[in-house]
Structure formats: C-alpha cells, structure tokens
Amino acid sequence: xxxxxxxxxxxxxxxxxxxxxxxMVLAGCGTREVVWTTTIDMGIDEVAAALCADxxxxxxxxxxxxxxxxxxxxxxxxLDRRGRLLRRQAFVEGAVNIAADAALxxxxxxxxxxxxxxxxxAICLVLDWRPNGNVAFKRGLVMGEQSWANGVCALxxxxxxVCGAGVHGQASDxxxxxxxxxxxxxxxxxxxxxxxxxxxRICADAAGNLVVLGQTKLEEACPDLLVMKxxxxxxxxxxxxxxxxxxxxxxxxxxxxxxxxIAVGTAKSGDSARCVILExxxxxxxxxxxxFGEQAQAEGNAVTVTEEGDVFVxxxxxxxxxxxxxxxxxxxxxxxxxERHVRLGSDAAAAALVEGGDIYVAATVQNATKDIAVVRLFxxxxxxx
Length: 385
Description:
InterPro entries: 6-blade_b-propeller_TolB-like. The chain is mostly beta strands. 3% of the residues lie in helices and 63% in strands. The chain has a single domain (35-377), classed as Methylamine Dehydrogenase, Chain H, CATH 2.130.10.10. The protein contains 1 helix and 29 strands. Strands 1-2-29-28-27 form a 5-stranded antiparallel β-sheet, with no helix packed on it. A 4-stranded antiparallel β-sheet has the order 3-4-5-6, with no helix packed on it. A 4-stranded antiparallel β-sheet has the order 7-8-9-10, with no helix packed on it. It starts with a helix and ends in an 8-residue tail after the last strand. 47% of the residues are buried.
C-alpha cells in the first residue's frame, strides 16, 4: 500500500459512523417494527459479513473496499446496544482481504475468518480478537492452490473451527480445520464429493460434533446444498443433499439444544428465488423441507436458534424496485409468528442476525456506495425470555 493510499484509508477509518436515525417505524397494529438503525458509511464500499452479540455489545464484521485501488480490508465495528460506536479496527494481510464470518469467543472477543490474497495466492485466514483490541493470533491456512474460509464457530476451551474451500485446478473441495486456543492446528481435513464444492457455514453441538452447510456441483448440473455432520475429530457421520432443481445457494446453519439441525438457503430458478428451510434431527433424519411463504420471492441468508428454541431467519424479500431486509420468527411448516420488512436504500439484504432480547440484523445496503446497516428489530414482550 502506498503512503497516499495509507493516508486515504486512515482518513476513511476515522470517519464518524453515520446514524440513520433512531427510527421508530410503526406497524399496522401499533407496535414498533424498528427500534433503531445505524448505518456505517465511510464514503467507499462496505459489505456486511457477520454479527455477534454479548450481554453488552454488538460486533459487526465486514469488508471495506476502495474501488479506485481495488484494495480491501477486514473491518470490525463494536457498537453498544443503542447502536453507538465504541471501537473500530481494521485488519490487513495482503492487498485484498475479504471477511466472511465471525463467532463470539467464550471468554470475550470474537473469532473472524475469511481470505487474504498474498502474491496472487488466496489463503484462508483466521484471527482471535480480544476486547482490548489485541489480536491473540492470526493464522493462515493453505489447502491446495488457492483457499479461503467461509465459516467459523467457537469450541470449548477457546478453540475454533473453520470451514471453507481448497482449490485444485478446476475443482475445489470442502475443508474443515480445528485450531487450539493458541492458533495451532489440531486437525484439518478435505472432503471431496467428486465435484466443485465449498463449505459455507459451520456450528458445533454440545458433544463437540460439527455440522457444516455447503454447496456442491456435479459437472453441468446446478449447484445443490449439502449438509454434513462430522465427529469431533473430523470423521464423517452423515451427509444430506438438497436439490430444488435450480441453483441452490447456502445461507446459514444452526442447532437447537437437542442437536436438531436447521439450515437456510436460497433456491433460484430463472427469476424466481425462494427462501428454503431444511430441518434434520441429530441423526440426519429429514424432519421437513419448506419454503418461506406461498408466493414470496425471498432469500435466506441467516438463522439463529435461542436457548428457548425460538428460531429466527433473515435475508431479503425481492420486490420490483429492489430487495428489502426480511426477518421473521419461524415456526414449523414455514409459518411465522411475525415478520419484519425494512426498506433501506435502493437495495438491501440481511447478511447476519443475532438475538439479544430484541433481534439485531446486519445488512448490506446500496446507497451512493455500499454501506453496512445494523438494525434493531422490535420483538414482542410476550415472547422475550
């Protein structure tokens, strides 16, 4: 990075977060749908990747890109529960750095993963960030000619699991790695399903088993969703494939307290897009496969399950004039307790959500440039824990 570019990036990082009003949007029944919205706009492109929450703060992770230079960096924003900025920190390894996911550390702070391009080679990158701003470790993993991380989850003992893709010629395999609390590799495995594959999101159950949501494509066929459960050492316990007949795009995956699996994604066919919800029991038995709404055009990008078993899904609803942020409290058979539709900019889609009393979503919004919006959605008092 040149000195001029460094000064420009420093100025951008010192910009004040633009707060797009503490919006109080009234729903038809007189309750608030939106408590507040905070927009992160530094004058260039910011794209949301992940959102985590502890009892006090929100941790927003994304990628900031300078269109003129093509350089990009990971961006971490720490907000309080009112949406006010507490800390901003950037992470740079190579010329191009793309943040993909984040997970809350058991002892505070976050794990962040993604990729960094160093000397024209993409590598998987994982870092351990602490609340004082220190990075305890930053670890690069190489799987094949090119590799990148897409998903991360915390494990007991401040260990971390990461998933992604390793490229070999024209093909790619899913990979999963587990690192100890110092960033050393405990184990790392490739998973080859004889096509072009990548792992997208990962989560862990109480026994240390891992569940992965990915995408697999065989020859000229459209890509399908793949759900895979692994043992604590990476051994494959079961795999399940979902094929809508069109192009299936992975979104997110979560577990309830019984180990049941809930995955969301988007089934695309022509101009049609459906938010699909896949449910499996802990042994891989299919519970249900449904789509949100009878006629709704929607994308499924994020899911979270509370300790009480409530399931919340977020993504986007497709409209003639662009996408709007969509979030809903999900019930079996694709019914909803409530839905929230938030119009932001000319186009917006939620990338992540967390529950903390109310529901918080992080979205990428198209304004003059791409911005990150964090929205606190009202949750009825009757269903709060």
